[in-house]
């Protein structure tokens, strides 16, 4: 009966908007990391692109252990606010402070700069895990309705895209307003961090956790060994974890290369916001029509169609990489295709919580999201690493007025060719995903178990 109650318990508009604020809060910091952090390190602090790429990859892999630990902590969390929401309240201020420190590299020797970068970058990632992972888990705790979860995810991604556009358009002008030096970057992220705190608090105070387990496991802690064993019985979680890794790498490369492509291929650094806007505006528009399309065709099929559209966008850019008109058209088409690929992955992951409970008899939202989060972060680290390594191989010199032909070729490869490879593999990975068709039966079986247990 309770499962049926959860299905009928629709989420109001205020709660959906409040939930979406959390993703905006995340992206005030994370979008900056994706779009400007490598540029800040190479062109403002002027450290080696190869070294930065290696630091980021190593850090993201190490951070995977933090993801698993945080997943276990979430599953063991018991408070009057639930198991996910408390972490938004606890970690929002530390997250903002850590972001300021990350964009405040001191003017010391290279060795100590590398140490500082490694430490602060990892601190941000650890805190990001402790707030973003519970935020992701919250989707599966607010409702079990597949469509409602899709709508919640669309709301969060709309806010995410708006935030990405805002960060892209405002960062460099705000830095310039504060003096366009190292201190200006610190002040900019102090401002952005304060905004992030407010957004997280809105989510905390205006959302509610409603969903429990269909078995008595909710009344006792699930041993980590049992939870991990259950995780690897969940084939759909495995598919989405690999897909998340590839998507994380691709997103990091897409966002991180805009500033380089604008400055050194198109010849105008000011075009970085235009490139981001060209991608994000169609992405935003697509989200407003995504829900009925998903309802008709299913999340997996719409995601596959999105990947095909992305490839078409890349091919258009490939025709004339220095033609601004074609670059913007291709980027816009790529953004339209990216909408379902990025947005629906979160809703699909939420559905694997019930599938895992149905398959193994235990419900472990934290572990499911933590392991998949590790995939996404490792993908982000891989993307940052690829940027640094390929720029280094091409002979890129940070802060130079002009780059060599090899460096420009590396920038073009990162903007066009390498992302194509990532999305094609994503297409192949998603083909075996069939949970859209099986989910109703999974919920029906779980409801029967709850009736028996009660």
From TrEMBL:
Keywords: Membrane, Transmembrane, Transmembrane helix, Transport
Classification via Pfam families: MFS_2
Membrane topology, as annotated: Multi-pass membrane protein
Domain annotation Major facilitator superfamily (MFS) profile: ranges: 236-454
Keyword NAD (UniProt): no
Localization annotation: Cell membrane
Primary location: membrane
Taxonomic superkingdom: Bacteria
Signal sequence, renumbered to the chain: none
Record-annotated membrane-spanning stretches: 20-41, 47-66, 87-105, 111-133, 154-178, 184-205, 236-257, 269-290, 302-320, 382-402, 414-433
UniProt-listed PANTHER family: MAJOR FACILITATOR SUPERFAMILY (MFS) PROFILE DOMAIN-CONTAINING PROTEIN, MAJOR FACILITATOR SUPERFAMILY DOMAIN-CONTAINING PROTEIN
Protein name (record): MFS transporter
Organism: Clostridium gelidum
The organism's taxonomic lineage, starting at the top: Bacteria, Bacillati, Bacillota, Clostridia, Eubacteriales
């Amino acid at each position: 009966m309770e499962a049926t109650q959860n299905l009928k318990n629709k989420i109001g508009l205020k709660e959906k908007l409040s939930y979406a604020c959390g993703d905006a809060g995340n992206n005030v910091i994370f979008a900056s990391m994706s779009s400007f952090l490598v540029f800040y390190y190479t062109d403002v602090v002027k450290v080696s692109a190869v070294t930065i790429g290696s630091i980021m990859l190593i850090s993201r892999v190490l951070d995977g252990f933090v993801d698993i630990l945080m997943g276990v902590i979430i599953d063991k969390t018991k408070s009057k606010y639930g198991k996910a929401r408390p972490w938004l309240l606890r970690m929002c201020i530390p997250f903002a402070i850590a972001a300021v420190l990350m964009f405040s590299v001191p003017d010391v020797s290279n060795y100590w700069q590398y140490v500082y970068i490694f430490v602060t970058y990892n601190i941000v990632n650890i805190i990001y895990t402790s707030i973003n992972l519970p935020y992701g888990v919250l989707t599966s705790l607010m409702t079990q309705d597949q469509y409602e979860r899709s709508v919640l995810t669309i709301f969060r991604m709309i806010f995410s895209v708006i935030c990405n556009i805002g960060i892209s358009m405002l960062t460099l002008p705000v830095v310039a307003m504060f003096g366009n030096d190292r201190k200006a970057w610190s002040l900019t992220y102090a401002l952005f961090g304060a905004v992030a705190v407010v957004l997280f608090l809105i989510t905390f105070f205006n959302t509610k956790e409603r969903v429990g387990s269909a078995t008595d496991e909710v009344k006792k802690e699930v041993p980590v060994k049992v939870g991990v064993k259950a995780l690897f019985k969940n084939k759909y979680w495995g598919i989405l974890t690999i897909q998340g890794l590839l998507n994380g790498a691709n997103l990091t490369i897409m966002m991180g290369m805009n500033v380089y492509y604008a400055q050194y291929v198109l010849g105008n650094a000011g075009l970085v916001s235009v490139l981001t806007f060209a991608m994000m505006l169609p992405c935003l528009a697509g989200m407003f029509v995504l829900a009925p399309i998903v309802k008709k065709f299913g999340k997996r099929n719409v995601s596959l169609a999105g990947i095909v559209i992305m490839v078409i966008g890349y091919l258009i850019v490939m025709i004339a990489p220095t033609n601004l008109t074609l670059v913007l058209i291709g980027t816009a088409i790529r953004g339209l295709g990216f909408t379902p690929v990025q947005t629906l992955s979160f809703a699909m992951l939420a559905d694997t919580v019930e599938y895992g409970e149905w398959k193994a008899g235990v419900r472990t939202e934290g572990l499911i999201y933590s392991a998949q989060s590790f995939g996404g972060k490792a993908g982000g680290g891989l993307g940052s690493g690829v940027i640094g390594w390929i720029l280094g191989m091409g002979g890129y010199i940070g802060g130079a007025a002009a780059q060599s032909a090899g460096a420009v070729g590396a920038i073009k490869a990162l903007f066009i060719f390498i992302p194509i490879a990532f999305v094609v593999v994503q297409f192949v990975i998603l083909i075996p995903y069939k949970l859209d068709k099986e989910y109703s039966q999974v919920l029906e079986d779980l409801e029967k178990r709850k009736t028996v247990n009660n």
